[in-house]
């Protein structure tokens, strides 16, 4: 299986050779994130099978806030939650605070290093299909992040 990080058309992205890989996990190191300019970024990935067929692209976005906009504002993350939606649903996230809560580790130098495993029991027994896993956080001023 080949993967492609998409800046253009099919096959024009940065190729990743993934022979025999069934599960792919990607992490952006904190030092790479810290070097980014304040704006919203999207990461998109798609895969090509051995027959040459391409998958539907999957994208995730994240925002690096402008420090001037957040200085002096409470920014301590106090809660995290996730929710799972299937492609047969409307993909509208549930109300804030109604997802499945998870524990947050203590910050180290102001950074929370979070890794999580969603148990298989969180998915229906007939879990075939495409699922959207949303994650959001709440700060100590009761503001919620985007998912």
List keywords for this structure.
2 domains; disordered N terminus; 3-stranded antiparallel beta sheet; 7 strands; mainly beta
Describe it.
The protein is 6% helix and 32% strand. The model is unreliable at 1-7 (pLDDT under 50). The protein has helices at 30-34, 67-70, and strands at 2-5, 14-17, 39-48, 58-64, 77-86, 100-102, 131-139. It has 147 residues and is mainly beta. The relative contact order is 0.17. The chain folds into 2 domains: 2-64, no CATH class; 72-139, no CATH class. The chain is built from 2 helices and 7 strands. It has a 4-stranded antiparallel sheet with strand order 2-1-3-4, with no helix packed on it. The protein has a 3-stranded antiparallel sheet with strand order 6-5-7, with no helix packed on it.
Summarize, please.
The protein is mostly beta strands and 147 residues long. It is 6% helix and 32% strand.
Assembly of the depicted chains:
single chain
Tell me the span between the first and last alpha carbons. Answer: 29 Å
Whole-number count of domains: 2
What fraction strand?
A: 25-35%
